[in-house]
Amino acid sequence: MASDRDPFVIVGGGIAGVTCAEQLASQFPSEEVYLLTASPLVKTVTNFKQVSKTLEEFNVEEQPSSVLEGKYPNLKVIQSTVKLLQVKQHLVQTENGQTFHYKKLCLCSGARPKLLTQDNPHVLGIRDTDSAQEFQKRLSKAKRIVVVGNGGIALELVYEIEGCEVIWAIKDKAIGNTFFDAGAAQFLIPSLEPDKKDRSLPCKRARYTTDKTGAGQSGVSGELGSALGPDWHEGVELRGAEKSSSRTHMEYECEVEKIYTQQDFFMSDLNKENSKLGMWPVYVQLTNGMAYGCDFIVSATGVVPNTDPFLCGNNFELAADHGLKVDDHMRTSEQDVYAAGEVCTIGWEPSPLWQQMRLWTQARQMGWYAARCMAAEVLEESIDLDFCFELFSHITKFFNYKVVLLGKFNAQGLGQDHELLVRCTKGREYVKVVLSGGRMLGAVLIGDSDLEETFENLILNQMDLSRYGEELLNPNIDIEDYFD
Ligand code: FAD
After folding, report:
1. Is 370 in the pocket of ligand 1 (CB under 6 A)?
2. What atom of ligand 1 comes closest to residue 132's alpha carbon?
3. CA of residue 217 to ligand 1 center, whole Å
4. Residue to mutate (ligand 1; options 35, 135, 345, 360; most atoms within 8 A of CB)
5. Which of the listed CATH numbers 3.30.70.2740, 3.50.50.60, 3.40.50.10090, 2.30.170.40 matches domain 114-208+231-299?
6. Does ligand 1 lie within 6 Å of residue 360's CB atom?
7. What is the DSSP track for 108-170?
8. How far apart are CA 157 and CA 155, in angstroms?
9. Residue 110 Cα, ligand 1 centroid: separation in angstroms?
10. Average pLDDT, the chain
11. Ligand 1: distance of its center to the CA of 315 in Å?
């Protein structure tokens, strides 16, 4: 059983784990906090800035663990993968043979790419510094690649790649379905034309930096490095083997039916039907009947929470997406075990304006809130669900445009019960608001509209906007003054 003298133990040196460990170490300066992590570098948040009530910006730096230990003398970082968890005994064991008893444990082990197929050398996933470098190396010799997936990573990749033809296979009717509707996708598509890929446009966004001295190292087991984040490709040249700029060809509403090696392909019926596909290291057959040869395939089809080492012998409740289910105090179903970041799935009834998305900002918020909940339980205090879970908000950048997403930005879960107002100036901005019963429930702001704070307030205060109608997006009205 746990004793009060046992330390707090956190697993995972990504944003969730480090934020959680820092918060506990500063709140309990005379208690020991252990951070056990598979990766040699830890991710720390710097230059945190609360942009508005819920929008936040920060830089992320990969640092050696000594920097963290220097800041908090009671925080010890152990670089070793956790192999075993025995919740009844309140102990974890690491690959290097060390055993740690805990009074409270927080699992922040992140997630790994959901690959189209395991152990196929022609299929790459991008997750950490190592996999990004492998991708860059393979790309430098490639003339054509197939990118499968429609989330943030696929969007960034397709935009950033130069000197290589990209076949982009998505299962939806429009690009970026995770973040945008078809209208926003139409606004962004011209940016994919080779001569439009203007990377010099200024753009405010959270910066991600890596410590150059440590870049390239990852977890000892090679698979457990921290997830990359915004701007992961900055300073990494994503250039293929062709001199000319890249061409992107989209295949909509399809998935991968089958992947063929060169040898299998030439013996297959697909070769007989598509004899003009040419010589490539690998071939992809899509469910829409199309087939392509390519140098390799990037699988950017989401992530799977890293729960494996913790499940054996324990009784964790898992969500449908295999995340550790947590309650509104970030507690898993096992006593004294909390979870935060990508490894967990919320099990509470969320606010009507918030949804979980496996993003950078939520990893930080969950890590911080989990630490406060752990502390509250130890101190026998009560704690309310943090305000950050009230309204979904995210600032990022796609295709060099600043992108702000608020609330039910894609009318998630609203069925037909909503209307949309859209303002679009080609090449400059795309503004969409989601209204239901005259109240604003969400917004997508692409470009420098500067409307985020006003819209955030309108969403939070749920003011009845019926009488403003389309005037709400009239560019000649200074909406900020209007609602002041
Ligand atoms: P991670 O950062 O993955 O950290 C998990 C930690 O756990 C790692 O240190 C790992 O080594 C450790 N670990 C795992 N298993 C074990 C074990 N058994 N024992 C010990 N340690 C273990 N988000 C955005 O908001 N905006 C973006 O633009 C964006 N771009 C992205 C681009 C890429 C290529 C990728 C991969 C992700 C991107 N994300 C982005 C997502 C974002 O990076 C993640 O949501 C966030 O980093 C998750 O943080 P985390 O702490 O939960 O997990």
Report:
1. no
2. 34
3. 15
4. 360
5. 3.50.50.60
6. yes
7. ---EEE--SSTT-TTEE---SHHHHHHHHHHHTT-SEEEEE--SHHHHHHHHH-BSSEEEEE-
8. 6
9. 5
10. 88
11. 24
Output the 3-class SS for 95-109.
CCCCEEECCEEEECC
- Minimum-distance ligand 1 atom for the alpha carbon of 224: 11
Please tell me the distance from the alpha carbon of residue 147 to that of residue 158, in angstroms, as a whole number: 8
Tell me how far the alpha carbon of residue 228 lies from the centroid of ligand 1, in angstroms: 6
What gap in Å lies between CA 449 and CA 145, rounded to an integer? Answer: 35
Which atom of ligand 1 is found nearest the CA of 109? 7
Whether domain 408-482 has CATH 3.30.390: the reply is yes
38 lines ligand 1 (CB under 6 A): yes
Question: Looking at domain 8-110+306-388, does it have CATH number 3.30.1380.10?
Answer: no
Check if 149 has its Cβ closer than 6 Å to any atom of ligand 1: no
CA separation for the pair 31, 33 (Å, rounded): 7
Give pLDDT tens digits along the chain (484 positions): 677 789 999 999 999 999 999 999 999 999 999 999 998 889 988 889 898 999 998 888 889 999 999 999 999 999 999 999 999 999 999 999 999 999 999 999 999 988 888 889 999 998 877 788 889 999 999 999 999 999 888 888 888 888 999 999 999 988 888 888 888 888 888 888 766 555 544 333 333 333 343 433 333 334 566 776 656 666 667 788 787 767 889 999 999 999 999 988 888 888 777 778 889 999 999 999 999 999 999 999 889 999 999 999 999 999 999 999 999 999 999 999 999 999 999 999 999 999 999 998 999 999 999 999 999 999 999 999 999 999 999 998 888 899 999 999 999 888 888 899 999 988 899 999 999 999 999 999 999 999 999 999 999 999 999 888 888 888 777 777 766 6
- Answer for the pair 298, 158: CB distance below 8 angstroms, yes or no: no
Residue 17 Cα to ligand 1 middle (Å): 10
Q: Whose CA is nearest to atom 38 of ligand 1?
A: 229
For the chain, residues classed under CATH 3.50.50.60 are: 8-110+306-388, 114-208+231-299
Q: Measure the CA dihedral 402/407/413/415, to 10°.
A: -80
Q: 225 CB less than 6 Å from ligand 1?
A: yes
* pLDDT tens digits, one per residue of 249-295: 999 999 999 999 998 888 888 877 777 888 999 999 999 999 999 99
Is the predicted ipTM greater than 0.95, yes or no?
yes
Q: Ligand 1, atom 12: nearest CA belongs to which residue?
A: 12
Buried b (16+ CB within 10 A) or exposed e, 434-460: bbbeeebbbbbbbbebebbebbbbbbb
